[in-house]
Structure formats: structure tokens, C-alpha cells
């Protein structure tokens, strides 16, 4: 898919004398990388620098001049200097009047300054047309040409024509410009490259915490308990048996946690009788990370599926099979097929497969390119209807598989419930409350509230 | 991926006094939700309403005025009222002259009116610049900020500048505007949110019908027949055995149905000697839903793969394995490896794996973001060459697996053929005809026809 | 997802008399297909042709006139003739002055002419506004309406307004215009449809070569050697056993080859003490196809996973299991669980599962729509951190599984090492060198170099 970059290279020789000159202020790393790339794409580049001594760091084909002379040679000036040095541009205001200034700066922290660097620049030089661009691209990637990741360059600015000029340069460099509107979007664009999966943090920490808890819980009950009371060393359960007990539990709980905030929201709206009041902050945040919770649940479910499928390949499993058959042989009798068992085994497998299938379908639908191709009605149909169906299947799968443990006293080692029992609490609660919520007598007022109706319209007055 | 919405919130405090005022006509649900969101994003909002009594439903920071006064305060007026009340805007024509009117209305049915609401509005107020936007976004999602689904907002309008202004608002709200061209696109945009998977309806109903038929067929032959003649109760086959017989059959038939219309099209073109006549309607529709048929086939194939892989985990399977080994032991003889059997078993598994692998590759290629990155030549290579290869592998997989049943009389319980035999009819027919079509003596005229050549150029005169 | 095309059809009757007339020069295949589609979308179409005799090939509702008369009827003229006949347009220069000329031509070879067809046209007719468009769409697809593949139409041109007009037509035809900037992009756009996976060629040929080599290597060692020295005919190993030996080896080697060029690059930069010199060409090319190598590695890993999971379904496997159990029975003793074996078996399975899981995660992240939604920091985190983790897991998986063969002399049939040993060379080398590179004493200068620092700033002077 890296066609563009190779083509851009191929283009270079034919086009080198047709592009308009671009001026770059500042000979730092990013300024040089951008200059290299622009020269490669056929732009004459002139650098504006304090010292006009030609440094070998600067691309060979570029000219180096003083700031004022360099600025006069081009209509577009790329400001590749740091925000704290922007002040030195004020004396150049007259030269820069009417020019397009491209702010490519990044900060070190989110929301470091009250206003974005680009807006700051626009305030310093009100006569120039400031465009924010290129800050989301990595100098190293520009330099090496290995633009494997996003080729999107966010562009914003108040002057439409200036934005068009910058977007043309972006395109010529083999990148894809994305118009983000007026210069007010600059803060968002400057924050963008500093983020590291902001929406994933809470779901990931929650999952790690829960996983660690359940893993420890299983080690205690399955390995330590067995070792103490049955004198069996099952330490190798750590590799597959216990992960395959933790994964389905995590998948089920996280899937239920995707639908729990919706339940809370419905209850709050019913109680308040209006939708025109904000939810508590924790609920807002929870609702915003439902997609991430769901995808992590899907990851656990996939691991569970694979861990289960490799079971017959385990040395332990083939030893156990052999032992069972040999004990039958030595007792000289063939057991007939246990029909109840066959039914149970086949149903929990079938329920698990169908639940997982719907789960994967939900995952595919949440791919950006797929969800952009469905409208709201379709998205809600898939995520709500199919999602609840998946939750029902997965809960039933767990119930059929682990149901026998509920009543058996042997399931309560050290008076602790089996983790299957723990895993079912939230999903069952969600399903029961959801069932109540879709009863017509409750669904009707809720739908009215969501369509804007209020129980006490004068409430807040 | 929900970064934008969180950022937009973060932006609000800094930007609240820089945006231009927006006027909203109508204080219904969507008007209020949009107003809330705009105030959050820093826009001063003024509502135009019949009664200027301040209702607590309206966002606190918004002003409420009469229609004319409200309109004078803003360059952009969002018309959040229903089409049937548009007439009341005609007296305001003078106030609205030159203003940007944003039509956000939706209808209740597809193509409810001869012309779209936005075009109707433009006819009523020829002096205003009408832009269609926002109708594809859900009020509930705007309100709660949980824009999990598409952030795309389709925008269309005849005035480029007015469209730009509206697109800037869309971006400021954390959404992605998508320019759909002139106001003529409004009808399509108004129909969009009313659809529920229109291209999927026929393929899904077809699959459901066929699945039900084959399921019933298998229940009769595998459970009822066995119960009557062999007195064996295999009712638990319903959970896994029979689904795993129906799924591969469905996958194979649907995959063949993807390539069948292409075969028909080629035959029709060869017969007519021209490509410049429309295909019959049923063929046109069939061709348009090939992608959907293929994806449903892939779903069935995936289910088949998982159902097959869980086989060793079934209580029935381990009982059967045990029984086989024990009977060998009791007869006191070890069977040598049956090489023919080993070859057959390994080849149908290998063929199935390769076929499924190619099938999944086709599925990945049909993801919108992937297919947008390949050109036509590449797309046709994958979908046609690799697609036929997948069909060949899957057909061979079924032939090797089920081939032995063709001749065995026991396969014809109640004189009904085994479903493997039924499943092979269409794929084999497709492959045979395709083989004939790529013979040079037939392929050459077909290619000429597809390049625009006609056998009887004066034919239709 | 083919909603647009159906809607466009639905639109046609309502809009047929509102669109502006479009003129098409040339009545070849593509000209006719485009005309058909435009008439369907409501555009009045007039053809400019040498002979104004009405041919039945031309859409019924279109007018046919001489070139000059046809051009006068429309503001947009689509030039559906071949480049070599562009000269005949020069006499029409006066008529075409100020008109929008849409160049839709394609060449037969990449970079066939020094300048693109569209630029050539613009030079011939400097008074007209040339826009490149439509060349990436297939006539056959336009004709039949089955636009399954990319709906993207690349558009470029120097006149913004002319480009907007053409993009509106593109949208009206149910396609998505993509602005590629000025007319200089025309060469790239003309090359685009001629490519057949250019970035995939080297990785695919490399994989095919290596696969053939390893396949042959395994056939020799596992089938021929066994046949000669042990007189066992294991020819059926060709179907599953040997592919399942080759696939993991290929996956591991290709995954290591993804990270090897980064290692080379780091060493070269450390040696040179600067990042401002181009890498050797082979390294540049290698770095550009890392994504493709990784995806092919993922394909092999997936095949390996499925081949492994079907193992218990093989006739050979159940025969071997039975044989093992029966021999235990006949010896009248039950073997106790071998704990070392249980540990080994479970750990290599668990390592393989985790490695594969991370591998799939990397694959999903490289989907265009996903990678467009992550910033550079996130992309590098996933591809570098998670990628190396996947490599570590997969190497450990192979080491634990195949480790026992290193020392055993029976692994060296015909003095040839087992392929597990071969497969580990590159991954282990990559991991060892990478480990050295992240030692602080080496990582620090490397980071400095990548931030633009130079050891010998006057080096090249």
C-alpha cells in the first residue's frame, strides 16, 4: 500500500522545476527532514537562518539566506522553530504580511499553553495567514521515506486559499491532507501526536487488574489447594489450564460491562424523568470507553477459543484420555454413550461458538472503515440487538458449562466460590435488568424521555 | 478512537468566545441536542421560537428570541422544524435573504416526497443558500456524546462557501463532514438514515430459507431415519453435528452463487453479441449483491471451521474414540495404518484449509478500507482469480470428503440424496461452464465484446 | 455497502432535467460507458464525433454533433480519445478556450511518456482548464453498475473551480472523488491503474522461493530418508505434516526479516554517526516492504495455527493415539503423567498462542482504516514494542518445541540440520543484536543521531 511514496520518487525528476519555492525558517531536525522531502518532490527550497553559513546538514540543493531575504523568495514559509522563539518573528511582520505561515510545532505536554502554538503565531503576526500542518508526521519517517503508519496530515487555518496551498504541498509529498477546519482546531491537532491510546488506558488497567486477581484466585484454588489437600503437583496448569479459565471469565465480565452503563443510563433517565441533564461523570467516561471494553473482551474471548481448541494437543489431555480408556479396558467393560452428557457437551460448545461468532461480528463492525459505511440505525441494530444476543449466548454457554458447580459443595474450596460463579454475577444482572427495561410498561416512558419528553418540565426552574 | 469527542470537550473553555453565532429555528428534540453540542463546542446559540418564554429544556446559555430577531443575529440558521411547517418561513424570506439555511430534516419513509426536503426549502426561499447536513446523526448520540458509530456527516448544497461554513461547524463538533456535491444529492442523503442494510436483505433471506431447508433435511435423514430404522436416539446431533453439515453446504452453495451471475452475464453477452444492452433486472440485482452473498458464505465457512475444530472436545467424539480403541484391544489386534485413509483424510483437510484461507483473504480484501487501496486491476485479480481458486479448493474439499457417498446405496436413505451431493450441483456446474468460457475460442469473442465490439452493429436499428 | 449505486438509480427520474450538459469527445468504449452512466444520473450528454451519423452504440438519449458544435453546448468536455490523437484538438483551441477539459486517458505502460497525458493536453491547449479524472475506473464496471471495488476517483488539476465541477459529476455518478492536488499529480494517477501490487512483488517471490526450498528440504528428510532407511512410506505427509513444518518456519523467518532492516539501519547510522545520508538502495527498498513481509508472515502463521488445530482430526493422529494406548494396555501398565513433558507441551502451546495473538493484533493495526486512526507514537508503540514481543514469543515457542533436536544426533539426517534449527538463525540473531542496541551505552548515541545530532558535522565538507 506504499505505492504513493515510490511514485513520488519516480515523479521527482520530471517535476523538479515546476513547483513554487517554499521557504523554511529554522534548520533543526524537522526543518531539514521536511526540506529533504520537499526537494525530493520537486520543490525549490530556501532556508531562512541566523547564520547563512552553508552547513552540510542542510540538503545540498537548498539555498540558505537570512530570514528576511528567504521569506521574500516564497509565498509559503514553514516555521520550523520552537514556540518560545516565535517572538523573534515580530520584527519581520512587514516581510511576512500576506504570506502563508505554516506552523509545524509540537509541544511536550498536552494543553501545555492556554492557546495553541498556531493561534499564538497568528496573534503575533496578524497580517499573515497561519496554517497548522505537518506536526502529526514524524521527522524520522519523512527522512527515511518509510511512511508505514498514517499518511494523514491534519491541516487547519482560517484562510481557505492558504489552506489549499498547504494541502497541495501535503499531497505532493505523498501524504493525505485532512482539513480540520478553522485555526481553533489547532489545539486539538497539537495534542494529537502526544497521546498514547488515551481511551484505552482505563479499560486496559481494569482488565490487567481483574486478570491478575482471577489468575491468583485460580492459582490458589486449582494449584495450591490441590497440592495441599490432594498432594498433586499441577503447577503446569499455569501455562494453559488457568489462562483458559481466566480468559472466558474476563471476556464475559467485560462484555457485560459494555452493556451495564446503558442500563444505568436508562435507570437514571427513568428516575429523573428527563434526558436533559448530564449523567454523572463516571458514567459519561464509562460510556465513552465501551468500544474499548468490548474489543478487550473480544481479545479475551479469542484467546479462550484458541486455548480451548489446543486442548487435544496437550500432553496432559492425551494422558488423561489414555488413562480413561485403559481403566475401561482393565475393568473389561465398555461404557455406553451418556446421552445427557453428550447433550450438555454439544450444547455448551454450540452456544459458545454462536456467541463467539456474534462477538467477532461486533468486532468487525467496529472497524472504522466498516462503521463509517453503516448508518445510525444499522449501527444501533448491530451493536445493541446482536450485542445482547452475543451476551445471552455467552452467558448461557457459561451456565451450561459451569452450572453443575453451583450446587456441588466441592466447588466451594476454602469456602470460596468457583470463578464461574463469580463471572456470572454481572452478566446475569445485566440481562435481568435489561429484560425488565424492555417490558412495555417501562420501555414506553423511557422511549418518550429519549425523544425529548419530560415528566416535570418545570423541574429545574 | 473516540479521541475527538474528548478533545472537543477539552477545547470548549478556551474557545467559547471566538465562534460566530448560530441560530436554530425550532426547539424540538434535535434542535435542542444540536444547540447543547454547539454551546459545548464554543458557539453562541440563539433559538428562534414562536413563544419566547424561556423553557428549561433549552440549553441554559442559549438565547431565545422570535424567529425574525433570532435570524438577524446569525449568518447560519439551522432549520430544526418539520417539512410540513416549512411554509411558515415564506413570510421571513426577506430576513433570510443571503443567509445559510441548514436543512437537517428527515422523513419517515424512503422517497416520501417527489423532491427532497432541502430542495423544497430552496424552492420556497430562493434568496437563501440551502445546505443539507446533520440529518444522518442521531440526537441521542449528540446529546450523550457517545458517538461510537459513524462520525460522518453528509453535506450537500449548491453554494460552495455556504457549504464550507457548515462543514467548519461539523468539524468543530468533532464530526467529519463529507461533501456529497450539489443539492441534488439531498434526496440520497435524506434516504440514507432510513435504510436498514438494503443490500443485505435478499442474501440474508435466501440464506435463512436455504439453511432452514437443509437443517430440516438433515434432521429427517440423520435423526428421524436413524431413530426409526436403527432405533438410535441421536437427537443431540441438533447442536453440533447437523449445523456442521449445513454450514459447509451453505458456504459452498453461496460461494458458487457469487460466481454464477458472472457466468450468466458472459453467456448473455455471447448470445447477444454486444455488451450495450442491459441485463435482465434479476441478473442486475443479483450482481449487485454478490459481495453480500460472499460474506455470508464466509460466515458459514467460518462456523464450519470452528464446528469442525471442536469435534475432539465433544463427549460423543471421545466416547467414539474410546469405543474404537477398546474394540481393537478386545479383539487383541492392532490395526496397521490405512494409507489410503490417511491420504484421503489429510487431503480433504488440507484442501479445506487452503480454500478457507483464500476465502478469508477475499473477505479481508472486501473490507472498505482495503478495497479502497487497490486499483481495479488488483481488485479483479483478487476477486476473480483467487475467488475461483477458493471455489475450486472448496469443491475439491467436498468431493474428497463426500465422494464416497455418491456411489454407496446407503447414502440414499428414503431415496433422498445425501446433502453433500446436493451441495455440489451448483459449484460443479459453475466450474464446468467457467472452464468452457476460458477456452480461447470462446474467451476471445467475449473479450472483444467486453471491449466494445459488436457482432451485429446494426442490430437494434 | 453498494447503497450509493442503487440510490443513484432511484435519483435518476427526479433529476434528469436539472444537471448541466456534458460533452464527450470520442465514441470509444469508455466514452460510451461514461455517457451511459451520466445519462442514468441525469446529465444531458452530447457527443462530439467526426461522423455525426447516429450509431446505435451511442446511448439513445445522447445527441451526436461535430466536435466544435458539441463543445459549444457544454462547459465540461470529456476527452475520451487516445493521447496520440490529441493533436487534432489544436484547431479547436478557440472553441475550447475557458472550457473544462477532462482527461480520462490511460497509457499501456508505466511512465510511457516523459510527461503525463493530462499535462500534454494542457500544453497543447493552454487556454483550457485541464482536469485529470476517471482513468482509475473501469469501463466495464461503469457499464454494468457493479462497482464492487474502489469507488474512489482520483482528480487533479490546476484550476480549483474546474476541479470542483468535475468532482460534483464524480459524486453524482455515485463515486467518491479524491483531490490529488495540482496537475503535476497526473503522472501518478495515470500510473495507478497499471500497477499490480508493486510493493508485494518482492515479498511474494521471496516467500515462494523460500517455501519451495523448505518444502523440498522436508520432503527429502521426512519422506525420502524415512523411505530409504526405515522403509516407511509417509508420502501422505505432503498434505499436512510437511506444510505444517514449512509454514511456521516461513512465518518466523519472515517476521524476523521485518525487523532485520531496522537493525541494519541502526548499525549503519551508528557507524556513520549521522542520519543525514541515504541508506543503500537495497535497504531502502527492504524497509518499504516490511509491512508486506509482515502480512505474509501472518498468513503463514495463520496456516500453521489451522494446520496444527486439525491434527486431532487426522486419520494418522487417531491411529497413532490408538496405537499408543493399545501398547500400554498390552504391556498391562498405565504410564503416570510425565510432568516435564506436560510443562514443555503446555508452555510451547501457550507461547505460540500468545505470539500468534500479538501477531494478529499487529495485522489488524496495519489495516488502513485502523492505522489512520492512530498517531505516530501509538503506531510505533504497537509495531515496535508489540512486534518485538511477538518475535520473542514466537522464537521462544520454536525453541521450546524444537529445542530437543539441537543436541540429538538423530536430528542430523544426512548431516543436514533439522529445519527448526535453520529457522531460528535469523530470529535469534535479530533478537541478540536488538538486545545489544537497547543497552543504554549504545541506545543513547543512536537516539541522539536520530534527533539530528552528528558525530562529525563537517564530515562531508
Automatic annotation (TrEMBL), chains A, B, C:
Cofactor: FAD; heme b
Residue intervals passing through the bilayer: 204-229, 249-271, 292-310, 347-365, 386-407, 419-442
Domain Ferric oxidoreductase: 249-383
Pfam families: F420_oxidored, Ferric_reduct
Alphabetized GO MF terms: cupric reductase (NADH) activity; ferric-chelate reductase (NADPH) activity; metal ion binding
Domain Pyrroline-5-carboxylate reductase catalytic N-terminal: 21-107
Biological processes annotated in GO: copper ion import; iron ion transport
Top-level taxon of the source organism: Eukaryota
Record's bilayer topology term: Multi-pass membrane protein
Reaction(s) catalysed by this chain's protein: 2 Fe(2+) + NADP(+) + H(+) = 2 Fe(3+) + NADPH; 2 Cu(+) + NADP(+) + H(+) = 2 Cu(2+) + NADPH
Keywords: Copper, Endosome, FAD, Flavoprotein, Ion transport, Iron, Iron transport, Membrane, Metal-binding, Oxidoreductase, Transmembrane, Transmembrane helix, Transport
Primary location: membrane
GO cellular component: endosome membrane; plasma membrane
Subcellular localization, as worded in the UniProt entry: Endosome membrane
Family: Belongs to the STEAP family.
Protein's recorded name: STEA4 Metalloreductase
Organism of this sequence: Calcarius ornatus (Chestnut-collared longspur)
The organism's taxonomic lineage, starting at the top: Eukaryota, Metazoa, Chordata, Craniata, Vertebrata
Amino acid at each position: 500500500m506504499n505505492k504513493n511514496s515510490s511514485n513520488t520518487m519516480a515523479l521527482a525528476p520530471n517535476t523538479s522545476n515546476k513547483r513554487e519555492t517554499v521557504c523554511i525558517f529554522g534548520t533543526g531536525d524537522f526543518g531539514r527532514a521536511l526540506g529533504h522531502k520537499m526537494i525530493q518532490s520537486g520543490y525549490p527550497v530556501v532556508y531562512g537562518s541566523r547564520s547563512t553559513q552553508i552547513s552540510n546538514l542542510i540538503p545540498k540543493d537548498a539555498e540558505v539566506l537570512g530570514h528576511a531575504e528567504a521569506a521574500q523568495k516564497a509565498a509559503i514559509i514553514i516555521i520550523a522553530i520552537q514556540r518560545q522563539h516565535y517572538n523573534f518573528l515580530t520584527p519581520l511582520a512587514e516581510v511576512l504580511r500576506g504570506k502563508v505561515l505554516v506552523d509545524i510545532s509540537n509541544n511536550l505536554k498536552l494543553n501545555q499553553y492556554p492557546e495553541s502554538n498556531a493561534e499564538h503565531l497568528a496573534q503575533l503576526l496578524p497580517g499573515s495567514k497561519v496554517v497548522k500542518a505537518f506536526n502529526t508526521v514524524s521527522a524520522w519517517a519523512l527522512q527515511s521515506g518509510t511512511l508505514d503508519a498514517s499518511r494523514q496530515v491534519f491541516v487547519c487555518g482560517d484562510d481557505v486559499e492558504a489552506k489549499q496551498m498547504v494541502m497541495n504541498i501535503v499531497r505532493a509529498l505523498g501524504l493525505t491532507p485532512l482539513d480540520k477546519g478553522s485555526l481553533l482546531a489547532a489545539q486539538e491537532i497539537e495534542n494529537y501526536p502526544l497521546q498514547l491510546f488515551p481511551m484505552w488506558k482505563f479499560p486496559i488497567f481494569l482488565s490487567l487488574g481483574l486478570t491478575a486477581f482471577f489468575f491468583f484466585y485460580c492459582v490458589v484454588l486449582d494449584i495450591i489447594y490441590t497440592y495441599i489437600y490432594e498432594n498433586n503437583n499441577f503447577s503446569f496448569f499455569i501455562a494453559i489450564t488457568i489462562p483458559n479459565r481466566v480468559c472466558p471469565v474476563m471476556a464475559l465480565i467485560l462484555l457485560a460491562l459494555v452493556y451495564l452503563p446503558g442500563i444505568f443510563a436508562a435507570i437514571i433517565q427513568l428516575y429523573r424523568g428527563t434526558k436533559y441533564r448530564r449523567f454523572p461523570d463516571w458514567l459519561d467516561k464509562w460510556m465513552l470507553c465501551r468500544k474499548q471494553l468490548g474489543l478487550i473482551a473480544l481479545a479475551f474471548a479469542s484467546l479462550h477459543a484458541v486455548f480451548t481448541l489446543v486442548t487435544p494437543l496437550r500432553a496432559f489431555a492425551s494422558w488423561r484420555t489414555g488413562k480413561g480408556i485403559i481403566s475401561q479396558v482393565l475393568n473389561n467393560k465398555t461404557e455406553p454413550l451418556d446421552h445427557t452428557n453428550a447433550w450438555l457437551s454439544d450444547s455448551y460448545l454450540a452456544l459458545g461458538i454462536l456467541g463467539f461468532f456474534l462477538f467477532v461480528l461486533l468486532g468487525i463492525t467496529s472497524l472504522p472503515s466498516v462503521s463509517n459505511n453503516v448508518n445510525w440505525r444499522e449501527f444501533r441494530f448491530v451493536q445493541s440487538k446482536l450485542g445482547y444476543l452475543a451476551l445471552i449466548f455467552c452467558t448461557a454457554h457459561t451456565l451450561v458449562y459451569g452450572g453443575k458447580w453451583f450446587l456441588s459443595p466441592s466447588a466451594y474450596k476454602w469456602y470460596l466460590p468457583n470463578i464461574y460463579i463469580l463471572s456470572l454475577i454481572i452478566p446475569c444482572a445485566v440481562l435481568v435488568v435489561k429484560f425488565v427495561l424492555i417490558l412495555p410498561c417501562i420501555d414506553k416512558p423511557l422511549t418518550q424521555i429519549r425523544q425529548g419528553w419530560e415528566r416535570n418540565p418545570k423541574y429545574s426552574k
